[in-house]
Design a protein that fits this description.
Blueprint: H1 22-25, H2 28-34, E1 40-42, E2 44-45, E3 48-49, E4 59-60, E5 71-77, E6 80-85, H3 97-105, H4 108-125, E7 138-140, E8 145-147, E9 154-155, E10 160-169, E11 172-177, E12 189-192, H5 199-211, E13 215-226, E14 231-240, E15 254-259, H6 260-269, H7 285-295
Parallel strand pairs: 1-6, 10-14
Antiparallel strand pairs: 1-4, 2-3, 5-6, 7-8, 8-9, 10-11, 10-12, 11-15, 13-14
Amino acid sequence: MHAPAAPAPLMAFAGSPMDRADHIRADPAALGNLMNWRARVMNLDGLLPEFDDNGRLLWHTIADVAPDAELVFLGMMDDRAHFAPVPDQGGTGPAMPRAWQVMQLLQPEDLAIYGGARSLIDWHARHRFCANCGSPTKLVKGGWQRHCDNCGTDHFPRTDPVTIMLVEHDDKLLLGRQPRFPPRMYSALAGFVEPGETIEEAVAREIHEEAGVRVRDVRYIASQPWPFPSQLMIGCTSIADDPELTIDTTELEDARWFTRAELEEARAAGEHGTDLLYFPRPFAIAHHLVTWWLDK
């Protein structure tokens, strides 16, 4: 039996009001005409955004940007072109605490605009040289492509697919925790889709590798862009017939089955959680997946 259709909650980093305006990206003259006094450039400190007390992104003008700065065209909004500057360096590790603060303080639409911008500018900062011949590349198509004049290779921003999945057995859910998680925090298992496999195969492989559980009836539920550095989280659900766990401790510190009552209690407890569990945070797709399961 197929899982019922999921609702369409607004995920963190989704719902951007920006018109990506691909027809402008492909027209250098049209794009150049928009780089005027009306254009807006996102205020950034490296890869982190600057914003006001109301959680709104701060913007300045092109006149405030260094003449040699690389600017990525984010799109059109309020009849103005919007850009983001490429920083000197890209991200070098997991999201820092300030990034988690950004997720909680920015207004949803602004968070979505920032998330898309962050993925793009981080990619540019880390791909200034051609992977084919090693020569410098240049930003083209408004920043949605880089080109190598030496060998003619075009490079495009990448998005890496990651499956994140619920596993259900006997009205319980399997959740796991990584060593970096705060105490009592558990979440849905997740892993990158590898070359040559489907989403369904990736779900089954990752669950078996991390928890030793075989699953069936994999179904898609929802997705979330995740700009650290640039993933698409593909939320799924699955069924396990045998609940016995064999945990890969190189991947997980712990994994266990949670009853519906335990999850409901943790959800009701809010940000403080219970003695057993913190419910996944609202900005994570795991929160929406577990909520969907509890409410279906």
